[in-house]
């Protein structure tokens, strides 16, 4: 639908110069797009200037500036405490239910954050879909990051059918349930009871009957008598290196450990890795964390 408006017909060859002058003089009406008509361009103008006639223009849709945010299922996490921006964000995406602002950094043993609700339904719970899997998450009670989805697919791609996998820091299960697609068996452990609760729900949700949830401190896993694993995932970037001896004890000769670590120097954890095995090590950057710090993954082949 158009709107009737004052406009100026300018021959095409003069259009660019005239457009600039209209802009400088403040006569160009920016609510509308200029449009061609025959050999002329019709410029919408703000008032009845000499030569102006009435014509119809399509209105330019208003450009809405959206605040920076990260999407996790139906929740948007904003980086600024801006309730008006949160309302705009909520209105811009029908799939969004809630806009949150993190009141704290990721903290504590359970790696969780406290949030305040900026807009929408007051909840920190949502369902995330990732490569055909669904994960119920509660962002204030158990860790979840959608940013590792590509990494989970990379590890899945490196696996052989039927492997025995251990996820030492499983959270709500995104690694464990993704890898279960190829694995014979996945043992998924976490220290946080709410994370394990959600992990159990997610096992059911994805019918991943080959995932065994375990509520345990990873340090105790070597004492539980599991036969050696083909692959061990260690996704606790701030502290996983401490658990490397336990992981090496649980991994078979020739098996692989994926060690995620937060570091400031390339090869920072190589000396520690060399204390547990002489096997092949490949190091990659997963994502940046802060200036000068990044999440790295070490793929370690265990030689015993
Ligand atoms: C960074 S999160 C990773 C969760 C999951 N792998 C993911 O990608 O969403 C680390 C998890 O390790 C758990 N955790 C911390 N210390 C632990 C320990 N000593 N033993 C077992 N789990 C632990 C936390 O509760 C948290 O869920």
UniProtKB/TrEMBL annotation:
InterPro entries: MeTrfase_TRM5/TYW2, SAM-dependent_MTases_sf, TRM5-TYW2-like_MTfase, Trm5a/b_N. Coiled coil: none annotated. One of its GO terms (biological process) is methylation. One of its GO terms (molecular function) is methyltransferase activity. PROSITE patterns: SAM_MT_TRM5_TYW2 (PS51684). Residues 69-304 form the SAM-dependent methyltransferase TRM5/TYW2-type domain. It comes from the Archaea. Gene3D superfamilies: 3.30.70.2580, Vaccinia Virus protein VP39. Keywords: Cytoplasm, Methyltransferase, S-adenosyl-L-methionine, Transferase, tRNA processing. This is Methyltransferase.
